[in-house]
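Retro notes
What went well: the complex prediction finally ran end to end.
Inputs used:
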Amino acid sequence: MNLGSLCRRIAMALFVAACAAGPVVAFAVDDPSEMLPDPKQEARAEAIGAQLRCLVCQNESIEDSSAGLARDLRKVVREHVASGESNRQVIDWMVARYGNFIRLSPPVTAATLLLWGMPVLALLIGLAAAFLVFRRRPQVAPLSDAERVRLDELTRGS
Amino acid sequence: MSDELASRPSADERRAVTRRRLMMGLPLAGAGVCGIAFWKMLAGMQSGSFNPHDINAPVTGRPVPVFTLADQTPGTGFSAEDLRALSKPVLINFFASWCIPCIAEMQALLSLQKRLPIWGVAYKDKPENAAGLLKHAGNPYARIGSDREGRVAIDWGVSGVPESFLIAPGGTIVWHSAAGLDGDEVMAGLDNVLKRIGA
């Protein structure tokens, strides 16, 4: 094996390793000291934070954002998790202060019914349209004797 | 006679034409409705009556959260009890010296404090910096508390300074603005609420 191919192999291995590690690196808090010492609790806090909208960036979760408010909210989430609260309780605490807007996945309410029902609704509309189109397809008259003879000739020819 | 019969469209043909027209009209009607909706939305965004980025603070209509704020020079801090004990409305204004829109609204606050008392909260600010701003730009606040860690602001549902809350006598939050108080629409909203609660 020459040196060039060895270099290429090493570069490839590094690239694969970087790709594998990428999401982990991107999904991390700014400062390791923010993290809870208990890995189980930290994982729960991260899962809760991933469902909460950063109110500054608005399209990022507080786990992904490096805004000051997001950092404060991460800290609050970790305090609540460490004190033994359930995921539900932590999210309710946030909703009481910032409204449902803070939830990246909105709850089913009268206002979001159309949003949540759309996949089922679209499927039903599609099925209904398909049913109507296929039912209206014109009936094809059976071949006459002359046509059948002609068809036989043509297919025999091939 | 037979010619006349042939030229007249049959019921089936007429139905087909109606259906074709409907199929052509429906997308046009749909596009029209969408167009009107977009136009209304954009007009609302321009006039300020609709803001997609506005975070509707759910604290409006609720009693003030429990909190205590330390003194911020040149004022004295305050707590939820102080707000509950009020017999006149007061405006709570979260500000910071590092926040440009806050500095921009100071002039409006200075003229507003002639109508109703404004209590300030220095949000995540070094006390000396907040004091420096008020010395430089003028101090519109009757009382000033310091929220160094920004934790009190979270209980109020503050997402970014400046933010203001109108507190009715008895300590109920009756109005909220996530925008600076130097805009005409915002001031009109505040005027309406002040009239409603009789102040």
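What we learned: The helical segments of chain B are 2-7, 11-47, 80-84, 100-112, 127-137, 151-155, 184-196.
What to try next: split runs per interface for comparison.
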